[in-house]
Amino acid sequence: MAKTPHSKPEGRIKQEKARQAKRTVKTNAKAVRPRLHKDGQMSGAHVKRRSSQKLEGYFMTSRKGYGFVRTRNAGWPDIFIAPGNVAGARQYDHVLVKLLTPAEGKKIDKESRLEGVILKVLHHVDEADLLQNDGQDMQMVMWQLGAPGDFPAQVLAEAAAVPQSINRHDLAGRRDYRDYPFVTIDGVDSRDFDDAVFCRREENGNYFLSVQIADVSHYVRPGSALEQEAFARATSTYLPDRVLPMLPVELSNGICSLNAGKNRLTLGCDMEFTPRGKLVRHEIFPAVICVYRRLDYDTVNAILLEHNRKLIAANRDLLPLLKPLAALQGILEKMRTRRGALNFDFPELKVKMSQNGKVAEIVQRRQRLAEKMIEQAMLAANETVAEHFRRLQTPFVYRVHQGPQDEKLTALNTALLAFGYNELGDAKGDVSPREMQKLLKQAAGRPEDEFIQLMALRSMTHAEYSPDCSGHFGLAAKYYCHFTSPIRRYADLAVHRAIKHELVCDDDWLNVRKPGAYMAAAARQSSERERVAEEIEREAVKMKCCLYMREHLGEVFSGKISGMTASGVFVALENGVEGRVAVDELPPDEYNYYAEVMLFKGRTHSFTLGTPLNVRVVKVDLMERRIDFVPA
After folding, report:
1. The three-state (H, E, C) secondary structure of 344-399, written as one string
2. Burial of 120 (0-12, 13-18, 19+ CB in 10 A)
3. How many helices (H) and strands (E) does the chain have?
4. 293 - beta bridge partners?
5. Maximum CA pair distance of the chain?
6. Crossing angle of helices 449-459/406-418, nearest 10°?
């Protein structure tokens, strides 16, 4: 248990007087369809007559009577609704709103201040709607958080006109790798395949790895509606029951996807590694491939880990590829560990859907060998491409990540001292990846392990995209980019544009526009939309968890404390579902709350991160996406 004398409680908490946390209404809607201009700058939507606008959206109310309407309009903020203009709308109702206070000819972006009046309620949204298994639950999450809607007609028309096969003109200047037995290894339910791999052991003992990535830039041309839409979305969003793709299915699942048995255009990165993981040779080039077979993670794990005889027999011809790839995975992982790369052991929550649209099961999934094989191959390609183009000083989009700094480092060190660990950082306050890695190894297996991992993770900034190469702290890498997923990430598409412009100079768009400004705009937009997509995905999973736990009201589950605030503790069940136990539901005591070490300490009871707790499900609020527990 943490030492408490050095920690100051935030305040004594009387259980019977515990206050419910105030709900905050978010008002910073994200830009959905900004424009990319010739100078590389981007802007939001532009309208001539705001006063005549009538819009649909979801209403979000406050306790003071006013509220906000969130619309799907590109780049618009939430619209303020005064108490007298709500027209009886309730929380999350689908409404029609008219804008007030006209401002002729002004641009509207996420910083604009808009006010409106609700003309009528189009549909009252209540829990009964969310239980219909017809997708209304996901629609509500998408509306609330600014998910992209349907593709515009012009985008769909351009996508429909894209040929679904390659011709001889497409092959000019490309290496023909169709004789290599490339494989794709993805989730069993994947539909778009960005990457294919081939690996072999060389006679000199080295490992040859070829990573081939879909050449999306060949089809998404500068200035096209497809390009503008891809830039606006910047990423695909993955919900439990659907995908909101960055590109229409004709590209994402069709001509761009590396489907087995189909000739496909790619950008390739060939690498040769020593048995210690040192890169001794690499080449980056356009190519054409034909994937030999599609595999999934479960199949590869069954072959290599479980030695499934039936699957081994069916894929015996691929063992000369899979075994070297598995060996190289271990080599590259050890190399990165020696370098100081961090490994946070947090499982992924997976929602399994039934055919009738209901949640069948919720499980926690951890990476196994097959997932790590592909991860290490992609990391190798991303690092190699980033270093190559950094040395060329080409305008580029890098993936960067900063270590702990300032207040976050102070908070981490305060927690570490309370648990008896040494502070991190040198005299200047700088922390190295190796130092952080040493801390995580020190805490591994100890009662405070999860707490230390969580605090270490919180101390670091979120990775983001940047035109400047400042390194990746978590990977302990000097050079890093995202090159391997251009079907679902615009940053990767921008990287592909830079590669092709440098290698074959076939992209005249970068000759007339400012490459540096373009890369900066791509980095900003990709970072912003990534945050939105992550929030949508997170809230969609929370909704499905609520629907699942609603079927288990009154039941008792085993869990452990996963977080806490002054108002209560959060408990994660064995399946990963998380709910809240209010402080006044804890065993009777007079508690002090120590925020810096996440500890409730009473006279006879103590609760901290990782404390086991059996709980009963007492309430599920679908509208707020909240699950309430009480100790069982």
Report:
1. CCCCEEEEEECCCCCEEEEEEECCCHHHHHHHHHHHHHHHHHHHHHHHHCCCCCEE
2. exposed
3. 15, 31
4. 183
5. 79
6. 170
Nearest by Cα to 142 from 433, 407, 535, 517:
535
Residue 516's identity, in one-letter code, is G
Burial class for 63, CB neighbours closer than 10 Å (0-12, 13-18, 19+): exposed
Contact 357, 134 (CB under 8 A): yes
The token duo for 108 is 């509207």
Transcribe 323-338 into DSSP letters: HHHHHHHHHHHHHHHH
What domains sit in the chain, N to C, each tagged with a CATH number?
12-20+552-631 (2.40.50.140), 35-125 (2.40.50.140), 153-401+467-545 (no CATH), 406-461 (no CATH)
Q: Give dist(CA 388, CA 4) in Å, integer.
A: 51
Average pLDDT for residues 205-230, to the nearest whole number?
A: 96
418 touches 7 (CB < 8 A):
yes
Cα 312–Cα 313–Cα 314 angle in degrees, nearest 5: 90
Range with lowest mean pLDDT among 100-114, 294-308, 414-428: 100-114
Mean pLDDT computed over 51-72 = 83
Kind and range of the H or E run holding 629: strand 626-631
259 to each of 167, 204, 291, 454, 578, how far by Cα in Å?
17, 33, 7, 39, 37
Whether 23 has a pLDDT exceeding 50, the answer reads no
Beta carbons within 10 angstroms of residue 462's beta carbon: 10
Q: What mean pLDDT is predicted for residues 456-463?
A: 94
Tokens of 225: 């509606």
Three-class DSSP category at 252: helix
Mean pLDDT of the chain: 89
Going by C-alpha positions, the residue among 241, 243, 244, 239 that lies closest to residue 537 is 239
Q: How far is CA 563 from CA 99, 303, 597, in A?
A: 41, 38, 11
Where do the H-state alpha helices sit in 234-318? 249, 297-304, 309-314
By the 8 A CB rule, do 189 and 483 touch? Answer: no
Q: Give mean pLDDT, residues 392-415.
A: 93
